């Protein structure tokens, strides 16, 4: 742990950044099983925001694990650290005025609650609610097949639990929504919360 560190106050305020960009910043925290559609929907929302002239970015589970978090595994301690680092990165990005989507399974209530508590900007939890059977049918990365064969330890939904959100700001039931409809629901939530106009 480093000591003798003093927080340096930024010279550009949050209000100034909001005025410059024409929208507020927030964290869109997507959570759901593997294959539920987090990355797909987060990217569809990102495209819509881009087309509206908003400044946004998606932190994607696999991409972050390629770099920043490549030293972390999938055991409980690593999952907690994974979420903590993502939260801190999202904080830096929202501090810079962005609308940040995070697409991580984030299976544990306590970790998502911690992310919410640590968030400096508005925190919008988006539950990508897709039944396990459908995720397993989609199996876009072939991971369920491997997990069922016992080749992936601690696989959420199979050998590790998923704790669904209790009161998510946005609840997407993807069994009855296509990607476009799901993304539009997120955009509407951002309008209702005065993050975008
Ligand atoms: P995750 O990021 O949650 O692991 P992905 O977005 O990588 O999931 O994969 C979800 C897969 O399901 C994609 O291949 C996507 O095209 C497909 N899919 C089918 N219907 C939907 C839907 N209604 N919403 C989101 N994804 C869907």
Automatic annotation (TrEMBL):
Residues 25-172 form the APS kinase domain. It is an enzyme of class 2 (transferase). The keyword Phosphoprotein applies. The active site is at residue 106. Its EC number is 2.7.1.25. Keywords: ATP-binding, Kinase, Nucleotide-binding, Phosphoprotein, Transferase. It catalyses: adenosine 5'-phosphosulfate + ATP = 3'-phosphoadenylyl sulfate + ADP + H(+). GO terms for molecular function: adenylylsulfate kinase activity; ATP binding. Pathway: Sulfur metabolism; hydrogen sulfide biosynthesis; sulfite from sulfate: step 2/3. Catalyzes the synthesis of activated sulfate. This is Adenylyl-sulfate kinase. It comes from Pseudidiomarina sp. PP-1MA.
